[in-house]
Design goal:
heterodimer; A: 612 residues; alpha+beta; five-stranded mixed sheet; 14 helices; 64% helix; 14% strand; rod-shaped; B: 150 residues; alpha/beta; five-stranded parallel sheet; 5 helices; 5 strands; globular; disordered C terminus
Chain lengths: 612, 150
């Protein structure tokens, strides 16, 4: 605040006060001296007045002696003589006093001595005359002469004193004037100096007050900062403790050259070195010899510098030489000015994950291989079904065709029994053809992707009924078709479902007069359940679990023809839609096939809970 | 030699004989030529190879084409026939054992005129073949040879 070039305020104020003090002392001394001079001057004036007064009383004593002496001489009365004697006494006393008073003035003393002797001479004249009662004029003139001498001396002394008085008065006036001036000037100067010192002090006090306020404001800020710093410190300490005790991560710091400067518990656990062993060592120690040879440690630091942080996964080496697979993040640490302070390095041992990944990758490869195997198998299967579809039927066509031609062209030459056998051959061929078609259809549905779209089930069922017209011709069939909703499904496959279910219903109601077949849909626990009910021959629920298997049949071929593939196909289609199919039946009472296209738990298991 | 009206492309002897039997019964069988593989079919249609001397002016009225054929398969024959402006108006009916939907779809995409699966039942087969012959040779009208070159 106060520059070193300036005189400190304290010295200034002290100097001011010292100056004022010196001035006041000087003034006091001068005043004292002047006042002393004044007093002595005054005394001298008084003294002069006293001398003058005594000289006057000498003069008046002389006159008394002269007057009373003359009175005696004239009258002879003793009264005069007494006054005359008293006058002498007075004069002598005054002269003695004068003698004392003028000791300081040799010239006056000299005159006084002359006066004294003059007076004695004059008095002696008087004594003689009184004693002689001499009234002669000669005597009178002697006395007068001597009296004049005395008077002249007295006049001289008076003049001298008056001269002294005027000098002393002058001195007194002069000295009192300078003293006053001196005191005034000194006082004014002292007041000015004191006032200046006061001003300085006042100004300084003001500054100090401001400074104190500023200091107290600064103090408040500092206190807040201190509190903040304490909090930050505590957090930092907590963070350090945290970092220190993290076990799963090696969290370390490197200096700008890559030497280790901090080491936590996790680092010790993962890398195997204690802090004492590793601090100050270069971090390339953690790399494999191959990586060190290829300059990887330095490259990682360069990359961290270039892009703040660098991530890497790879093999690293522990203290004991064993290797682990590490996930590493190196981050360049810079201070707020951007200067590089070092690096942080966080390492995780992900060997297990790596192994799991590797094993997963192997499994994925295995799966992919199996998948391609499966795809190959599928292709073979497709080729197989294609050739089945194409080639297996050709011999059947021959069997059927040539036996037919044989009957037509050579029938008359064959016995009736022979014709019947040829018919059996043709039936077998037709049955085998149907079997192949059904199997191919079943396989085709397994491969087919669903083409879902909102489809009206009423229209689907109507199309199926149109197709079945030939089969129901000439029979008494009562169709009961309920309200059927639109559903999201593959309409072609749903047509297949209804075709299979309805042709089954037609087939197994053949003995009924009339056959009653109901197709409807009901809501059950929020799910739409379709059902096809007939009053046909039914079956025992004991065998219901066989119903949906391929080639599973509950009736003899002679009673009801069939391949045993239709319901398996129905189930496959329903399952493809995510739905379920189940059945309730009773021998001679008919059967009801239910299905839903939505997944729901609220429905009975495939064949459970049915009527027995 | 009378102009061939029907070309039957069929590698299976029995099927070929049955088809011929059915067509003869329908009285359309006297102008049928049978080839046994796809290459022979192409040679016949375009007058190349062993059929280099065939008069292409006497155009076919129907090709009955099996799909599964040796050397060149039926779909390739169909593609070549329908791609050539001189032959693309010749009606082609695929007559096959295949029920594969992709075969059917591809055949129609290539411009086949009809697609028929050979039934096992000979009565149905015969009906089908006879109806085909009657339809394409008698009922159906084709543009004249000039139109083919427009």
């Amino acid at each position: 605040m106060v520059s070193s070039m300036r005189i400190p305020l304290k010295s200034k104020v002290n100097a001011g006060f010292a100056l004022a003090l010196v001035l006041l002392l000087a003034i006091s001394a001068i005043s004292y001296q002047k006042i002393s001079t004044l007093a002595s001057n005054n005394e001298w004036v008084i003294h002069t007045h006293e001398v003058l007064e005594k000289i006057q009383s000498v003069t008046s004593g002389l006159l008394t002696i002269q007057t009373e002496g003359r009175g005696y001489l004239l009258t002879g009365q003793s009264l005069y003589i007494e006054r005359y004697r008293s006058g002498i006494k007075d004069v002598r006393a005054s002269l003695d006093e004068l003698q004392q008073l003028t000791k300081d003035n040799p010239r006056q003393q000299q005159r006084l001595a002359q006066l004294d002797s003059g007076f004695e001479a004059w008095l002696a004249s008087w004594e003689t005359d009184i004693a002689n009662r001499n009234t002669e004029a000669s005597a009178f003139s002697v006395r007068t002469e001597r009296m004049n001498e005395c008077r002249a001396l007295i006049q001289q002394m008076t003049d001298e004193e008056k001269r002294l008085l005027s000098i002393r008065n002058e001195e007194l006036r002069a000295s009192s004037g300078t003293t006053l001036t001196l005191i005034l000037v000194g006082a004014v100067f002292a007041i000015v100096v004191t006032a200046f010192a006061g001003f300085l002090i006042n100004r300084e006090l003001g500054r100090r007050e401001e400074a104190e306020q500023a200091v107290s404001r600064l103090n408040e800020i500092l206190e807040r900062r201190a509190v903040d710093l304490q909090i930050a410190n505590r957090e930092l300490e907590g963070f350090h403790v945290l970092v220190d005790q993290v076990r799963d991560y090696a969290i370390i710091q490197l200096d700008t050259a890559g030497n280790v400067t901090s080491w936590n518990v996790g680092a010790q656990r993962i890398e195997g070195y204690s802090a004492e062993e590793i601090l100050g060592k270069h971090f390339s120690q953690f790399f494999t010899p191959e990586d060190i040879a290829s300059g990887k440690p330095e490259r990682e630091l360069r990359e961290a510098l270039a892009s703040v942080s660098v991530e890497d996964e790879g093999w690293r080496v522990r203290k004991d030489g064993s290797r682990f697979f590490a996930s590493v993040v190196i981050t360049a640490l810079r201070d707020p000015s951007g200067k590089l302070r070092g690096f942080s390095k966080v390492t995780r041992d992900i060997t297990e994950r790596k192994q799991a990944d590797d094993s997963l990758r192997r499994q994925a490869l295995e799966l992919a291989r199996m998948n391609s195997d499966l795809a190959a198998t599928n292709r073979e299967l497709e080729a197989f079904t294609y050739s089945v579809s194409h080639d297996l039927r050709a011999p059947l066509r021959q069997m059927h065709g040539f036996s037919r031609i044989l009957v037509e062209e050579f029938g008359p030459q064959l016995p009736e029994e022979g014709q019947r056998y040829l018919n059996r051959v043709r039936e077998g061929a037709v049955n085998m053809g149907r079997l192949i078609d059904d199997l191919l259809e079943f396989a085709r549905i397994g491969r087919k992707e669903l083409t879902l779209q909102p489809s009206g089930m009423a229209a689907v069922v109507k199309a199926v009924l149109d197709d079945l017209k030939n089969e129901s011709d000439g029979r008494a069939v009562e169709w009961r078709i309920g309200d059927l909703p639109f559903v999201e499904c593959d309409p072609q496959l749903m047509k297949q479902v209804f075709a299979n279910l309805l042709s089954n219903a037609l087939k197994y109601t053949r003995p009924r007069q009339p056959a009653v077949i109901e197709v409807s849909c009901s809501e059950k626990e929020g799910a739409r359940v379709f059902f096809v009910r007939d009053n046909g021959v039914g079956f025992s629920m004991r065998h219901a679990d066989k119903l949906f298997g391929v080639f599973q049949r509950l009736h003899r071929q002679e009673d009801f023809e069939g391949t045993g593939i239709g319901l398996a196909t129905v189930q496959r289609i329903i399952h493809k839609h995510g739905g379920r199919v189940w059945v309730e039946a009773e021998i001679d009472k008919g059967a009801t096939f239910y299905f839903t296209l939505e997944p729901t738990d609220a429905l009975p298991q495939q064949t459970k809970g049915a009527v027995t | 030699m009378n102009a061939v009206e029907i070309l039957l492309v069929e590698d299976n002897d029995a099927d070929a004989e049955l088809a011929l039997h059915a067509l003869k019964r329908a009285k359309v069988g006297n102008r049928i030529h049978v080839v046994r593989d796809g290459q022979e079919a192409l040679d016949f249609i375009f007058g190349s190879g062993t059929y280099a001397e065939r008069n292409l002016e006497n155009s076919l009225k129907l090709v009955l084409l099996d799909l599964k054929l040796p050397k060149v398969d039926g779909l390739q024959v169909l593609r070549a026939l329908k791609a050539d402006p001189k032959t693309r108006f010749i009606p082609v009916t695929v007559l096959t054992s295949s029920r594969e939907e992709k075969d059917m779809v591809e055949s129609y995409q290539l411009g086949v005129n009809s697609y028929i699966q050979k039934p096992v039942d000979f009565d149905q087969f015969r009906n089908t073949v006879q109806q085909l012959g009657l339809y394409w040779l008698v009922v159906n009208q084709l543009p004249g040879p000039r139109a083919e070159h427009d």
